[in-house]
Design a protein that fits this description.
Blueprint lengths: L1 E5 L19 E8 L3 H19 L2 E6 L4 H7 L5 H9 L2 E6 L14 H11 L4 E7 L19 E7 L9 E6 L2 E6 L5 H17 L3 E6 L5 H14 L6 E6 H10 L6 E4 L1 H14 L9 E3 L4 E3 L18 H13 L4 H16 L2 E2 L9 E2 L2 H22 L4
Parallel strand pairs: 2-3, 2-4, 4-13, 6-11, 9-10, 9-11, 14-15
Antiparallel strand pairs: 1-3, 5-6, 5-12, 7-8, 12-13
Helix pairs in contact: 1-9, 1-11, 5-6, 7-8, 9-10, 10-11
The structure holds 3-isopropylmalic acid and magnesium ion.
Length: 391
């Protein structure tokens, strides 16, 4: 499916960046995937269309099979055509992959293997997961009010190495079987992600927490040595090292101490779900994966098979992934803020999805949330045209 959307028919409000020359078309590959993936990506695509229409951008949206649905259609989770399209894209928006139907498949043949292969093939070694407590949702945090006052953390997760990509082996054993998963890091792999994390910390409050298990693992010792060495090039960053078990506890006890967290693939997977719980719902968290080529944006929550097809999942993580794409890949800061501030206004008005419902709020279905957001964003444009104020 190719879907060219372009905007500029409406007069762009003055405060929006009015472009005399039409902006070059951006090729966005859509990988809706499995489970709730197609429902949530549909809503985020609506947001991208609105952005194109209101700000005069041109987005070409192309959808490709990926994950379990690609196994069903083409016998493999990452078909060659899908990979080629991703390589040629300006950015990629992914829903989620996986589901019970493919759970019996061995490691290497599952939908998740397609995701790992895509990360590896595109060299997506850096993964950014912003864990932000949205003020209107503070009471949803399981933390006590004082602890939940400030949670604003960027988790930088290494994404293309570690135990995820070492050899996985199962062999016969006297007791039944013997399974091995090899964890590997090289200096170069640690340096790449660490340099990014230092730069991210420099652009924020200058605090960087590197999380490892250097009291046990050789990979973690290499990690810690490498990060410590790089710290000399970043005198403005206050670096500390934490063991992962302590870091999990500290995240719950005193999350405000963290600004940027740098960690390995495995620990980042676990700590980012913990972080999501702190801010109310894993349905809210977007992510960006980047490397030398196009970046990939996806919510961190997964395919949620029990919710699939019911139109009840939260599209917010995917919407915020789309806005992260606009900001980080296309430099469209104002457009990203337009989307994010509209999401926050809906939360303030008590417009919720089921995962973040509270007494006295209105629970909308996934598609309804998209429609409501559309009105909210367009309302902001009208207000801006009328009053010249804000987006
Ligand atoms: C994530 C997911 C994936 C991961 C799975 C689906 C392979 O949990 O992106 O956090 O472990 O990286
Ligand atoms: Mg995960």
């Amino acid at each position: 499916m190719t879907n060219h959307i372009s905007g500029g028919l409406h007069a762009s409000p003055e405060a929006f960046s009015v472009k005399v020359e039409p902006a070059p078309e951006k090729k966005i590959v859509l990988l809706p995937g499995d489970g709730i993936g197609p429902e949530i990506v549909r809503v985020a695509v609506g947001v991208l269309r609105d952005c194109a229409a209101e700000f005069g951008h041109q987005f070409e949206l192309d959808e490709f099979p990926f994950g379990g649905c690609a196994i069903d259609a083409e016998g493999m989770p990452l078909p060659a055509e899908t990979l080629a399209a991703c390589r040629a894209a300006d950015a990629i928006l992914l829903g989620a992959v996986g589901g019970a139907k493919w759970d019996a498949l061995p490691v290497g043949k599952r939908p998740e293997s397609g995701l790992l292969a895509l990360r590896k093939e595109l060299g997506l070694n850096i993964n950014v997961r912003p864990i932000d407590l949205r003020p209107a949702l503070r009471s949803l945090s399981p933390l006590s009010a004082d602890r939940a006052r400030h949670v604003h953390i960027d988790i930088i997760r290494e994404l293309a190495g570690d135990i995820y990509f070492g050899e996985h082996r199962v062999e016969a054993h006297a007791s039944g079987e013997r399974a091995t998963d090899e964890a590997v890091y090289t200096t170069e792999e640690v340096e790449r992600v660490a340099k990014y994390a230092f730069a991210r910390a420099e652009a924020r409050t200058g605090r960087l927490a590197s999380i490892d298990k250097a009291n046990v693992l050789a990979t973690s010792q290499l990690w810690r040595r490498t990060v410590t060495r790089l710290a000399a090039d970043h005198p403005g960053v206050k670096l500390e090292h934490l063991y992962v078990d302590n870091a999990a506890m500290q995240l719950v006890l005193a999350p405000a101490q963290f600004d940027v967290i740098l960690t390995s693939n495995m620990f980042g997977d676990i700590l980012s779900d913990l972080g999501a719980a702190l801010v109310g719902s894993i349905g809210l968290i977007p992510s960006m994966s980047c490397g030398p080529g196009p970046s990939l944006y996806e919510p961190i929550h997964g395919s949620a098979p029990s919710l699939a097809g019911k139109d009840v999942a939260s599209p917010v993580g995917t919407i915020l992934s789309a806005s992260m794409m606009l900001r980080e890949s296309f430099g469209l800061k104002q457009e990203a803020e337009w989307i994010e501030s509209a999401v926050d206004r809906l939360f303030v008005k008590g417009i919720r999805t089921a995962d973040i419902a509270e007494p006295g709020t209105t629970t909308l279905r996934c598609s309804e949330f998209g429609e409501r957001l559309h009105s909210e964003m367009l309302g902001a444009v009208e207000r801006q045209q009328r009053t010249g104020q804000g987006v």
